[in-house]
Amino acid sequence: APSGEYLKTGGFMIRGKKNYLTASQLVMGFGLLFRLDSESAARHLEKRCQAEDGLGGEEANCDNLHDEQNKQKKLVTSELSEQSFNSVNSEEFSYPDNETLDAIQCLTGNPTEDDNILFALPVCAPYAALSNYKFKVKLTPGTTKKGKAIKTAIDLFMQDRTALPGLREFIKVIQEQDVARDFPGKVKVSAPNLHSVRKKR
């Protein structure tokens, strides 16, 4: 201890300031990604590039309005990033290889009618990350067991009337044990048409 006192066996001392964390909601989501063939993936990649180009012009206009604030933020963030970059060894970080990037680009959460889909991949992620997914449900802390929550979510996806006809076949193939590995336990499933699915049971 700094004052010269001895600590008992198993005792500890905390130094520094408390770092208070802001309260955040525990909201996860469960959705489906679809693996596309190379031609369909190329079409989706072109759409993403066009969307990013369109957003770039709007961001440039916003930057002109708030130049002074952004300069201060950039200075602070650049200093922090330099400190964190210097503290991390270069051996620990490696860029993903091209095969991994290609596999990620072949996945989409919102397939179109002219896409050739190979399979469906169940995904559990923060709900904000699933904003562009066609099939998604919100998971919040609750009392529903894992197996029942998975069945409810998949039943909801199966009964979606806006789904393309071929997509239901890919959803049927998904097995509960494959989803259970990534699915959190003790959740409450929330979705827009959830009450109609529960009534049909």
TrEMBL record:
InterPro entries: NFACT-C, RQC_Subunit_NEMF. One of its GO terms (biological process) is ribosome-associated ubiquitin-dependent protein catabolic process. Residues 98-190 form the NFACT protein C-terminal domain. One of its GO terms (cellular component) is RQC complex. It comes from the Eukaryota. One of its GO terms (molecular function) is ribosomal large subunit binding. PANTHER family: NUCLEAR EXPORT MEDIATOR FACTOR NEMF, RIBOSOME QUALITY CONTROL COMPLEX SUBUNIT NEMF. This is NFACT protein C-terminal domain-containing protein.
